[in-house]
Amino acid sequence: MNTLIGHATQDGCGGTEQDYVQLRKYFLDNPATKELLPSWVRVNRNTSQFWQFIKYKFTTYAERRDFIWNEMNPLLEFCESRQSFPAEKTISEVFSKFDEAGIHSAWQKALERKSSDPEGAITISRTILESVCKHILDEIGVEYDSNKIELSDLYKKAANELNLSPSQHTEDIFKQILGGCSGIVNGLGSLRNKLGDAHGKGKTNIRPAPRHAELAVNLSGSMALFLLKTFNARQS
Question: What pLDDT shows up at residue 117?
Answer without folding.
Answer: 82
